[in-house]
Amino acid sequence: MINVRGLANSATSTVNNNAYITILSSNGYTIGAGRKQIPTYDPIVSGMAQTQALDNADLEKIQGLNMQGVYRSLYLQGALHGVIRKTGDGGDLISYNNQRWLVSKVIETWDDWTKVVICLQVD
Questions:
Q1: CA-to-CA distance for 30 and 12, rounded, in angstroms?
Q2: Where are the domains of the chain?
Q3: Which CATH class is domain 4-26+37-121?
């Protein structure tokens, strides 16, 4: 099996270094005081990923979703999940460069890698 992600990453990382990231994978929520939902996460996982500006095709995919903020695309070995409001799933968080990002939309998902749109979170 050809590692397409590895081949692409070897080319892109020569001009845009990979970033060390940590991932908090959402596993639902608990109910706190005042019936407030409190997100819960699986143990932290870390590794390297490629972050890039959104290209035209990505911008077209999120057009009309009324999304505002600072966005990047992120490529990584493995899977990430965006928010699925109906089922309450998703909402994975990424940390890199001392910033927290929310996985807003899954653009591509394959057996061994994923491309997602992430949005900067301001605490």
A1: 40
A2: 4-26+37-121
A3: mainly beta
Q: Specify which residues 94 forms β-bridges with.
A: 23, 101
pTM comes to 0.77
- Tokens linked to 52: 């890039």
Residue with tokens 């109906």: 86
- How many Cβ atoms sit within 10 Å of the Cβ of residue 85? 8
Separation of alpha carbons 54 and 74, rounded Å: 9
| CA dist., res. 34 & res. 49, Å (int) | 38
18-73 per-position pLDDT tens digit: 889 999 988 888 899 999 988 889 999 999 898 888 877 777 766 666 667 788 89
